[in-house]
Design a protein that fits this description.
The chain has 346 residues and is α/β, with parallel strands linked by helices. It has 2 domains: 3-175, NAD(P)-binding Rossmann-like Domain (Rossmann fold); 181-298, Orthogonal Bundle (N-(1-d-carboxylethyl)-l-norvaline Dehydrogenase, domain 2), CATH 1.10.1040. It has helices spanning 3-12, 32-42, 55-68, 97-110, 125-131, 160-167, 180-197, 201-211, 217-224, 226-236, 243-246, 273-285, 295-311, 317-326, 337-342, and strands spanning 24-28, 47-51, 74-77, 88-91, 115-119, 136-140, 150-154, 171-175, 261-262, 270-271. The strands form 2 sheets. Strands 3-2-1-4-5-6-7-8 form an 8-stranded mixed sheet, with helices on both faces. Helix 8 (201-211) crosses helix 13. The longest helix is centred in the middle third of the chain and has 18 residues, at 180-197. The radius of gyration is 20 Å and the shape is globular. 47% of the residues are buried.
Length: 346
């Protein structure tokens, strides 16, 4: 079986729910993922209210939507009352669990009976069921925004979450634990370690893309937001010196105009020599002498990190392969990370 046929077989055995019937939805949270969900729903004809933290965030979201030509069908608000009569409410801020649950409780007060969805790790199904009465689901869209090709759904979620994925034009995949986020974390951490040791973000990305990745890990992390990795580091105690300095200095990625790259005027990525200086400073503080890192070593270490993370997961191996392709951009021509590793390919 060819690598592509292997992935096609995995897709063929996944659920084929009908798209969720939906007229009105509310999405809360200032993350790129929240913006991507709002746009994805609006493009299917759903009237969406995007609820931001304050007027500054409202203006930032409005500017981003206008630049992308995606403002149609999306209203902006700063109060949970913006969710009035919504049939779907989504919290996608990535903030502390207690704050996220409070947002959802506030929205459900004005949208009783709505399907309640939390996006990403940090809020569990048990949390939702304890705080709310009604249908709940926990999902994740790990691919860099605005791509929503695949939606992971935690087992035990309301079945309509599959219909929501279909509504977004995405493939629903039910998993025991979020898989894409753990694969992405391994890839991002390996990329940061390479930059710390002497490579640059653009060298890491160029080597990854030459291997066949859709997008290099540093550019992809800029799209997701570096604050997500920073929060993960803080939650797990796994400090990595480059990102953990970048974020407090305002390098949040594309949404902040600067991350591993600069994005002048909200446009495409531009190499930023200052981030190389920052990495060299942190290496000096750690007593590390930077060294050249070859493309072959970059590729080997990224793939090895992804393979190790994939082998530690409990999801179906074929599903892990599909998620590695759709969430991490691993080359489909190689059949997914576990399929690739099983064939003993470098």
């Amino acid at each position: 079986m060819t690598p592509e046929a292997h992935l096609d077989a995995v897709r063929a055995r996944l659920a084929h729910a009908a798209p969720l019937a939906l007229r009105r939805a509310a999405v809360a949270g200032g993350s790129p993922q929240a913006l991507g969900l709002a746009v994805g729903l609006a493009e299917t004809g759903v009237a969406v209210t995007l609820i931001e933290e304050d007027q500054h965030d409202v203006q930032r979201a409005r500017d981003a939507l206008t630049r992308a030509g995606c403002a149609a069908g999306i209203a902006l608000a700063t109060d949970p009352s913006g969710a009035t009569d919504a049939e779907l409410v989504v919290e996608a801020s990535g903030g502390p669990a207690a704050l996220r649950l409070a947002h959802l409780v506030g929205m459900v007060r004005v949208a009783p009976g709505a399907l309640v969805v939390s996006l990403g790790a940090g809020v569990t199904l048990a949390d939702l069921q304890g705080a709310l009465r009604g249908p709940v689901a926990v999902i994740d869209t790990a691919a860099p925004p605005p791509a929503i090709g695949l939606v992971e759904i935690l087992a035990g979620s309301d079945p309509r979450a599959e219909g929501l994925a279909r509504r977004l034009g995405a493939l629903p995949v039910t998993v025991p634990d979020f898989t894409g986020a753990r694969l992405i974390a391994a890839l991002e951490d390996a990329a940061e370690a390479l930059v710390f040791e002497g490579s640059t973000p653009w060298e890491v990305d160029a080597a990854a893309e030459a291997f066949g990745f859709d997008l290099g890990p540093c550019a992809a992390q800029d799209l997701r937001g570096l604050d997500i990795a920073h929060a993960r580091h803080r939650a797990t105690g796994h400090a990595l010196p480059v990102v953990d300095r970048m974020v407090p200095e305002g390098r949040l990625g594309r949404k902040g105009g600067v991350g591993w790259y600069r994005y002048p005027g909200g446009g495409g990525r531009v190499i930023d020599p200052l981030v190389e200086d920052l990495a060299r400073e942190e290496a000096h503080f750690a007593g590390l002498i930077p060294r050249p890192v070859s493309d072959a070593e970059i590729q080997q270490r990224l793939v090895a990190a992804l393979t190790e993370a994939a082998r530690a997961l409990t999801a179906d191996p074929g599903v892990i392969d599909l998620i590695s392709v759709m969430a991490c951009g691993f080359p489909a021509s190689r059949g997914g990370i576990l399929h690739h590793a099983a064939r003993g390919r470098p």
